[in-house]
Queue: 2 jobs
Job 1
Amino acid sequence: MCNCENTYIPIPMKVERILNENPDRSLRTYDLSFVNEEDKNNFKYLPGQFCEFSILGKGESPFGIASSPTEKDILKFTVNRTGSVTNDIHHLQVGDTVGIRGPMGNWYPVEKFKGGDVVIIGGGFAFTTLRSMLIYMLENRADYGKITVIYGARTPDLFIYKDELKEWDKRDDLILHLTIDRPMKGWGGLCGFVPTITKELALDPTSWVVVCGPPIMIKFTLPVLIESGFPDNKIYTSLERRMKCGIGKCGRCGIGSKYICVDGPVFSYEELKKIPEAF
Amino acid sequence: MVKIKKTELSGLINYLSEKYQVFAPVKDGKKTSFQKIKSADEIIDSIPNTNLSPKSIFFPQAEVLFKYDENGIKVPKKDEKPFAVWGMRNCDAKSVLMLNKVFGNAHQIPDNKMYNDPYWKQKYDSSLIFGLACNAPLSTCFCNWFDGGPFDEKGSDVFVIETDDHFIMNGISEKGKKFLKEYKKDDKSDIDKEKIESLKQKAESYLSEKVDISNIYDKLNKIWDEPIWEEISSKCINCGACTFVCSTCHCFDVSDEGKSGKGQRIRLWDSCMFPIFTNEASGHNPRGVSVQRVKQRVMHKYNYFMDNYNEHLCTGCGRCVLVCPVNLDIREILKKIIKV
Ligand SMILES: Cc1cc2nc3c(=O)[nH]c(=O)nc-3n(C[C@H](O)[C@H](O)[C@H](O)COP(=O)(O)OP(=O)(O)OC[C@H]3O[C@@H](n4cnc5c(N)ncnc54)[C@H](O)[C@@H]3O)c2cc1C
Ligand code: SF4
Ligand code: SF4
Ligand code: FES
């Protein structure tokens, strides 16, 4: 960070590249570069953090940072078109200027994970910050043990980062399980919901595990992990709520006495258990 | 202590106005609220308490965060003069201290400037608050439940006691002491201690008996799933009036006005009482039903804030009690909860 004197002021970013992630064009990935050198140097983040993406005249929306801090010079966001701000983001063209505020929130404890095995469980387009973490760990491969990825989507079209998934599948230092909800012609991967697949894979419960996806997926995956013997303090997830300020003032993203924007979005299951509103 | 005749107030306001923008309780249409004043003539008695709380001085109902046009983003100019507030009652002075915990800092990362609210700090940090002892609390007041009282000095820079013909002023903070010293020579000889004590006792006698709510935090931890919440919230029509008048509610919305070429980003008071507050783009709403929202208001004030800042986010000012169209009384809610 930051715009230290005034956190409400977005920093200018230029749209460098836009990629359609799926045929119905509802998911797009934006690579942004910093307009000012100084902003670039001040922007220090870790996988799991998010930004408020600002379209002047329309408003702001929070998005997880999909790039890894090891990818220099750009910030990546994958945006699902669903409402007013995201619709305007989808109208952006290469070369346009937008604003971002951040990095906000906490991060996946990649330091703590060092030396351990890591399981990443993701669903749908929530794979964004998981991509960030995966790239980060692959760049620092020697620091981590076995890396397993379980990634589910309703249909093959709905996976994001398809080219990278192909690359990751080829690597021998990473185990990738892709699954779709129901069998489909031409699909060579697994079939079944993420919680079911997680159960079948009989994961090693001494690993660290990060789960991120639609609320319903998280809700059904956590009990599977607990049953498999993962301790509460080794299970992490990332939560979403409506947000405005992103700095713990506006009250919008409160769950219990925590604010997701500053105390989260990343929480261990140990922490979440104590928050009545969390699920 | 400094004692001035009530007729000298006008001089004090003029003196203050040289260095400060002065705010005081005024008649504002049909309502009373704190507004910027030019002369002491505009000031009304702030007891009974103003309809709208003085939080608006430091945290306006609508505030421009920045303006934008083709040349970029511009933050509104800083107010050139700091703020002085005359006649903020004890409970309200305390509420500003609570809000400063939220806006002036954050419990999470106290040293990180990123978590300051610059708009709040710019107004609050340089301000001078004249707290006013409350000589005649209303039947809706319950500051005594929160270790407050009509003569509580917390949050005031200068604490003012109003007698029949005089204002007796006492410097509380360093800022307040310094101001008084410059303003007028200290004169203790002339202060009638007994008179002050009797005013204080009289004021306290207006308050109904203190209810011990020391177990409310623990109780709230235990009753999340209890049916009592249905009972408590059944009357509420979720109008949000309680949170609007509340001196300690700080939730806000951020929204853009204007077209993409030119306009402004503003923040506006918002309320956890409204379903849209938490409604997400997917249609999912974590607090979709009224009972969850009433629970949120009670939990935030008497449990969550305690977790983060070790006190209740309520001063017992009673505004929410006065304003509620269906007579939902927060005191009755608290009494029910401590008895569960
Ligand atoms: C920490 C975090 C990370 C996120 N990461 C991503 C991501 O990587 N990719 C992605 O596509 N989406 C992500 N989201 C969800 C995304 O923020 C919302 O889909 C988006 O705000 C919807 O805005 P809208 O204006 O298009 O929708 P509208 O329905 O028009 O919403 C209006 C306003 O509601 C708020 N809002 C609505 N839904 C949500 C929601 N689910 N979460 C937060 N705010 C909401 C926003 O403040 C928005 O400005 C994330 C949300 C959070 C909290
Ligand atoms: S909750 Fe009611 S009594 Fe308490 S500070 Fe707010 S308005 Fe005053
Ligand atoms: S003023 Fe009364 S009815 Fe309106 S939201 Fe508050 S408690 Fe509910
Ligand atoms: S977004 Fe404002 S408190 Fe979290």
Note: Chain B has two domains: 2-57+77-205, 216-339.
Job 2
Amino acid sequence: MTEKQEIDRAAAAKKPVIELKGICKTFDRRVVLDDVSLAIEEGKTTVIIGPSGCGKTVLIKHLICLLRPTAGEIYFRDQRIDHLSERALGAIRTHYGFLFQAGALFDSQTVFQNIVFPIRQHRRETDMSELEQIVKAKLAMVGLDGFQNYYPANLSGGQRKRVALARAIAMDPEIILYDEPTTGLDPIRSGIINELVLKLQRELSVTSVVVTHDMNSAYKIADRIIMLHNGMIVADGDADTIRNHPHPTVQQFIHGEVSDEDLAVLRMSGKGAQSQFSPQDFDPRSP
Amino acid sequence: MLAGKWSHAEAMIRDIGRFARFNWRVTSTSFLACSHRSTYPLVWTQMNIIGVRSVPVIMVTGAFVGMTLAIQAYDQLATMGFEERLGVLINISVVKELGPVLAAVMLAGRIGGALTAELGTMNVTEQIDAIRSMGTDPVRYLVVPRVLACLLLTPLLIIYADLMGVVGGAMVSLLHFGINGRAYWDYSANSVELWDVAIGVIKGFFFGAAIAIVSCYKGFTCREGSQGVGQACTEAFVASFTLILAIDLAIAFVAKAVYLTFWPMRGLV
Ligand SMILES: Nc1ncnc2c1ncn2[C@@H]1O[C@H](COP(=O)(O)OP(=O)(O)OP(=O)(O)O)[C@@H](O)[C@H]1O
Ligand SMILES: [Mg+2]
């Protein structure tokens, strides 16, 4: 690497790779994201935490423009992308790997075909033995070598998630977006996935954005943690900042405390509620 | 009340607009994709699924149409002593109208439903989003091969339906009613023109494209859940059926005008 390239790289490292400016997203007048601005730095691991249903998946889908914002702008390396056509976005999306929360594997294709899909789509000259090598390597990374000829329906939930992860990293992307990579995995597997995220960052200086509920893994992998609540960013900083954050919602979330109101609701629906509701009130056929 | 009606109408207009945009995207992407080598294997696979496996059911449809027509029409012609012209009636009806339309309706049921269900399930399980996330245009990867396969194979399938219609009609006429074979075929050959067959086959291109595009559109826009997929399939069938009949009418108008322009005398005889 020449000196000039080194300087360019250093300059690039300071610039955000992806930038969201004032993103709002509404579904049928329901506000899910409310004026979110966020800059993802190159080569860093950004973790997004927040309670279920607060809009984490919606946010991470905006980073790759799978969802278009109702208002606001999205930039990828200083290029505005939120108004591009799908065809133009295709070229940009090849820089990304995206792990869907539910895996989103092609259920009529085998594990092998799933993983070679992006490679076949974007690389011209690839012979079979080379593809087999790549698939073997990627599957080994997630501990599933040997499952090449399985169909997704014949895998367990956690295995599907790991195959989806192997597919997301198949093209060796510069940016990887993980939507809950460790949910549904046992503690040891989660640990391995955390190591994988760290390893990709260290060795290939991959930029990662990880959505998670798992505070242990967040502390372990994050350069920066962002907490989302009611569609807004309530906390932003490194692991220590978050640990000592003054905001009560943040403290409650990271310690997994159940609020008194929630407890009161639970108690209501327990013994005391039996006199109010009889089982007949719940018609199983009603939606 | 009025507001409810208005919003319903607004939703419908928006749906038509989206369908028009989808059509445009499919058309432009199809032309682009034709120059890509990677499209051909996909089209080939779809041709196998869509075309080859439809042959038996299409042939059965054609045969039944021909046989039924023969039985229905014989009595009227026989009372006037025209029974030898039964072939004219059967073969023109089959080749020009009933063969193409019934074959297309059969295909709408057989392929249209399957396409909508497949793409609809892919849509609700985020598989289409997954294709987008990997930088591939789902229209190019999923829709274009299906549309091209349908468009290219429906005319061929219609030829099969025509063939079996003619055979079925002839079988009933000659074997069951005992009409003179020589006269039957002579009358048929003299009055069924290449033009009639060509119009029937040309319709196939439009029917095939309509079935595939409508079914793919319904799959792409279906609502969440298994109920959403089921409903999309029903809507796809109803919409493609209606569209087939509408296209048939439009082509009948156009074909007649063209025919009268080029062969004005024969049209009057
Ligand atoms: N396509 C959609 N149409 C309508 N509403 C949606 C859609 N997608 C998401 N939402 C709404 O947006 C809100 C946030 O959803 P999102 O999936 O981002 O939650 P999340 O933070 O990822 O939750 P979890 O941790 O449980 O995955 C939800 O209340 C959901 O109802
Ligand atoms: Mg989510």
Note: The mean pLDDT of chain A is 85.
